[in-house]
Amino acid sequence: MNLPRLWRTVRHLSAEQWVFRALCRGRRVAMGAAPVFSRRHIARQAARLPLPDLNTAPLAACAATVLALQEAVHGDHLDGIAAAKFVLLNRAYDFNSLEDIPWRGDFHEGNNPLRRMTLAYMGYAVPLLARGQAGDLHIILRLLRGLDAHNPWSAPGVFRDVWNAYTASHRLINLLCGLALYRANGGTREAAAEAEILDHVRFCAAFVRANLERDLQYNHLLKNYVALAVYAAALPELPARFGFLAKEIPTALRQNVLPDGGHAERSPLYHLLSLLDMDLLTASKVLEGEAAAGLDETADRMAVALGVMTHPDCDIALFNDSWLGEAPPAIRVREFLAAEETARLPDTGYVRIGSGGDAVIFDCGPCGPDDNPGHAHADFLSVEASIGHKRFLVDSGVPTYTAGPDRDGSRSAQAHNGPRLEGVEPIEFWKSFRVGRRGRAREIGNPGLAGIAPLWCAGTQDGYAPVGVEARRFVGLWPGAAILVCDAWIGPVRHPARTDLLIPDSWSPDDKGTLAFVQDDVRVEISVLAGRFGGCQPDRYWPRFGLEAPANRVTLVPESFGDFRAVAFWLNWADPAAAPDAATVASLFGRLVGS
Q1: What is the CATH number of domain 342-593?
Q2: What predicted TM-score, i.e. pTM, was given to this entire model?
Q3: For the chain, how far is it from start to end, CA to CA, in angstroms?
Q4: pLDDT over 90 percentage in the chain
């Protein structure tokens, strides 16, 4: 036990989180110690809830949103489910039979339950049942019976995965919406099978209501509320036990969504998923009057913010814990207007500069909320860049949520393309989601930096303050022509400094003797204006969870300019674009360091 690190982690928790940390964990221990009594208690609570009506208009609207999500995630893998063949987070599993599924097996995730949770979410049930085939209904029923048989509440860890409140929230939403789609698409009435599944849905509703994740809060607690709202969408009126939603949902929205519309956890993926939750809350009609108007206003702000975090290919950047394929492409979630040439999320800490098919998305904000930064990466001052609608500079993505070298490496500064120091981390990561000491980044709005590039942004981060170093970055964009990036390290030269560029393998290194990469008819040449070229090596990244893709890593080494070190590079894909001369670069560094 590292007590100083533990203190640096927990000192940010709110009093409410401390109280509910004890209450929620105590409740889970009690349920495991007396599983029969606990299940009977939840069953009694469930019996007090009306059974859902599968034919309500609000539930149909919810089901349309959930179907779009789950078709994107599971739609290509439905045919194998009858034979117990699943694809969970991009990894295929053959369980031989539906009755033999090891619901709480390892699933290549070791000490993290994400794939077990994904299986137990039953998201695949939505597009499967939407086909309206009676055989698919019985497949889901067999799966549910296996889930109950293999996951007694006395099993160690069962409340971390299959009977986690977050998992039960997903399962409630997916089974209820799946059944509504089955009925709407002409599925043969199977009264006994439907009743058994609905009984499980109602049990999940009571379980979630009794186990709200007030200890974690943020996206987990909001998902609990969304699940109860979807259940209420299938009822003639809001049950008395759900009456608290009218007050608590607006409170959760204020916690999750920042004034600029960005998600508090600073993950473009969770932002996208939360926008879908906004759609479910709206469709459920559980909020009325001012609360409903506030929900609409929040969703509108989030839609605008989504445009700032989106590439010209109409999908999200991969900062922090984000990956593609966990939701429909951003443009299918919201047909947002193109972001302005310079668009800022000052509270979230993202800036997007771009025009047409060229864009740079710049991370210059906090790593996450101090009381729950579990999805943070050390990507301070990192950029993702698209050239000609093609992603050229990418983030490393997410290989795993399992604690260990892969998780640690993917969260480290070395895995990202901001200005970094070797052997020093700006954030103290431990386990899968723990964060101890953490630095901060912020945007620099110095007017003296204007006029160099048509579009520009700049930022600074203090994560290296323990070793006396501050890192700063300027990014300029000439749409249709070039990008200029200037990095400065201010402070002692005790640790080597580096800037890395991660370029996906869809761009091939040029063989004409210059540092350049080519894709289709676009050729991007990299010129080092300050510092020196440190090499180009094969590397990898994970644009989809756990799915490795090849990349090339270009390393640049700074040179010394008195009391600071600097790197400047020029990405040019248009012949007329001339790089800034040495005097201009020197002047820019003077203004950047003096900001």
Answers
A1: 2.70.98.70
A2: 0.95
A3: 41
A4: 92
